[in-house]
Specification:
Number of helices: 31
Largest sheet: 3 strands, antiparallel
Structural class: mainly alpha
Distance between the termini: 93 Å
Shape: elongated
Length: 595
């Protein structure tokens, strides 16, 4: 009696060491901040531990950010077991099903569940609780509707911890209107975004303040800077919730269209820089937007717009050896051609043909290119005629229809000169050089390559220059000028590796294997062959059949020369090298003699 609450607290706490724990402060942050400041000033032996979705913002405060558990890798069971997410799942699963055992039969499914739930402990607990009704496979399937699935937490938990939706509702309700608007509109970005993308798409006048507050509340994560940019992303669970809120606000179509427009503009911007001296920087930046680009393709405002976006991405997928991804999306688009402009249709048909060709699917590739030519002829699309004839020529050559291939290349060169398409002309000249080399007309081949090289240097096509150096290496090899061939291959390999063109890195390594085997550098040939096989598997790259046959032919004597154990040991050593180590091994030698 006659004492204030402050006086009572001060009297109880000021003279003894005390740890005071304040849990879930976010809904009373301002009031609690005032009380904590007063208590700390008047109780020198007092320490306070507070949990909150945002900081209290007072002097002396130290912040420990509690991130979700690390999600397990999508690999073998032994790797999965060490994950904290998996350990939590198993512990909670056994509370509901004591006989639950994580094994090879369900391990990858549980791993997928934990990854889809972003390692959020509450979400994992709620999912594990569903084992009372469902098996692991059913839970994994039903995560597409996670907010209906993940309910029924402990009766003793706070109400907003009893369902996943209630937990996020609790955080969402504490936001200001400005923060809610930005939060729900950022949901159109999948896989994160840059600040410029947020400013360009989300239609919020001043972005920095609400974005900062969303980060403070752990609703948006600020990742480490990459490629000279910082990216901002939501956990997928939060993004799906925000997307639902966007739908409720009647804004989903509008802001998905804005996200698509941003993706299209960015993809077209990067396409023009993939052959520039800054190609690697822009390729890496576009790589970071991969999930956004896929989302934009799926949510395109129209079929024609979808084709427009796929067109600049085709060059990027080719550049980064993403053949499977390129073929998947071009074929996905070609399923619906209604309303598509002829030029856009021809570009996607050509892209599908290119990816099928690079995966050695010759029949499909030929069909795509021939259909593309029909569209081009019908609508007089001369520029696309040059590109398509060039690509069809490659198919014909791989199918050993040499005369048809030569005819296609000549037509491509004719259309390229007619339309002043220097880039396509350079490619076609290189292909004519390849045909001349194959026919042992080496001087003619060198002339074609030299003209192509001059054009590529003129247009600053770094990748193209490396490609011609590789071709020159082939000519020198065929002329038995092995030392010159080695140096050309080295230069090409260095160029391709620097711009991360993995497909052509593999081609250079393949030519090096053939060269080593031919020049009796047997150990090096077998080691490099093992490394090449490992990298081709790891990056899912399909090498051309003629070159693979040539490699097999050159390696055959070595397999006869060495015992099976010796061959296996040498190739195993090469398979242990990383790609960087493999390239380093090849570039380390100053000459073929020093290999």
């Amino acid at each position: 009696p006659n004492h204030s609450l402050q006086e009572e607290l001060q009297g109880a706490l000021q003279d003894q060491p005390t740890l005071l724990i304040l849990d879930n402060c976010e809904h009373l942050t301002e009031a609690i901040s005032e009380w904590v400041s007063w208590l700390l000033e008047n109780c020198p032996q007092l320490h306070i531990l507070a949990t909150s979705r945002e900081t209290l913002g007072i002097g002396g405060e130290s912040i420990l950010i509690l991130k979700p558990f690390a999600v397990p890798p999508d690999t073998h069971l032994e790797d999965i077991l060490s994950s904290a997410s998996i350990q939590l799942w198993v512990d909670r699963a056994r509370q509901h099903r004591p006989d639950f055992v994580l094994d090879a039969g369900n391990g990858l499914l549980v791993s997928s569940i934990c990854r889809q739930l972003d390692g959020i402990p509450l979400a994992i607990e709620l999912a594990a609780a569903r084992l009372k009704l469902l098996d692991v496979a059913q839970i994994e399937t039903r995560l597409a509707d996670r907010f209906r699935l993940l309910v029924g937490g402990s009766r003793t938990a706070l109400p907003h911890h009893q369902t996943l939706r209630a937990t996020i509702d609790w955080s969402y309700d504490l936001l200001s209107e400005e923060e809610r608007v930005l939060f729900r509109r950022m949901s159109v970005f999948r896989g994160g975004c840059t600040l410029e993308a947020v400013e360009g798409v989300c239609g919020v006048g001043e972005v920095l303040s609400p974005l900062s507050r969303l980060i403070d509340r752990s609703l948006v994560l600020a990742d480490e800077e990459r490629n000279g940019e910082r990216r901002y992303r939501m956990l997928e669970t939060l993004r799906e919730y925000a997307l639902e809120r966007l739908e409720e606000a009647g804004e989903r179509a509008e802001f998905q269209a804005k996200q698509f427009a941003w993706c299209l503009q960015f993809a077209e911007f990067v396409k023009e820089r993939l052959n520039s001296p800054e190609n690697l920087l822009w390729a890496n930046r576009l790589e970071a937007e991969d999930a956004n680009m896929q989302s934009a393709i799926q949510n395109a405002p129209s079929n024609d717009q979808r084709y427009r976006l796929i067109t600049p991405l085709t060059r990027f997928w080719h550049y980064r050896s993403k053949m499977h991804e390129g073929l998947r999306w071009t074929e996905y688009a070609l399923q619906n051609q209604e309303g598509v402009q002829p030029l856009n249709l021809s570009k996607v048909l050509n892209g599908a043909g290119l990816f099928a060709l690079l995966m050695s699917k010759y029949e499909a590739s030929q069909a795509y290119f021939e259909t593309c030519l029909e569209v081009c002829q019908r609508h007089k699309l001369d520029t696309m005629m040059s590109t398509t004839y060039n690509n069809l020529g490659i198919v014909m050559l791989d199918l050993e229809q040499v005369e048809k291939a030569y005819e296609c290349y000549l037509l491509s060169a004719e259309y390229s000169r007619k339309t002043n398409d220097r880039e396509c002309l350079a490619r076609t000249l290189a292909n004519l050089g390849g045909m001349a080399t194959e026919d042992h007309r080496f001087e003619e081949g060198l002339r074609y390559y030299q003209e192509s090289l001059e054009i590529r240097q003129e247009i600053q096509d770094i990748r193209g220059v490396a490609f011609i150096e590789m071709c020159l290496g082939v000519v020198k090899y065929e002329q038995t000028h092995y030392e010159e061939a080695f140096l050309y291959y080295q230069r090409a390999l260095k160029g391709f590796h620097e711009i991360e063109d993995r497909y052509n890195v593999m081609m250079c390594l393949l030519y090096m294997v053939i060269l080593y085997a031919t020049t009796h550098h047997s150990n090096a040939a077998l080691q490099l062959n093992g490394a090449l096989d490992a990298h081709v598997e790891a990056y899912n790259i399909v090498l051309p059949i003629p070159e693979q046959n040539s490699r097999a032919e050159r390696l055959a004597p070595l397999f006869a020369l060495f015992s099976e154990e010796e061959v296996a040991l040498l190739q195993s050593e090469g398979r242990s090298w990383t790609l960087a180590e493999t390239v380093g091994q090849v570039l380390r030698s100053v000459s073929l003699a020093s290999v």
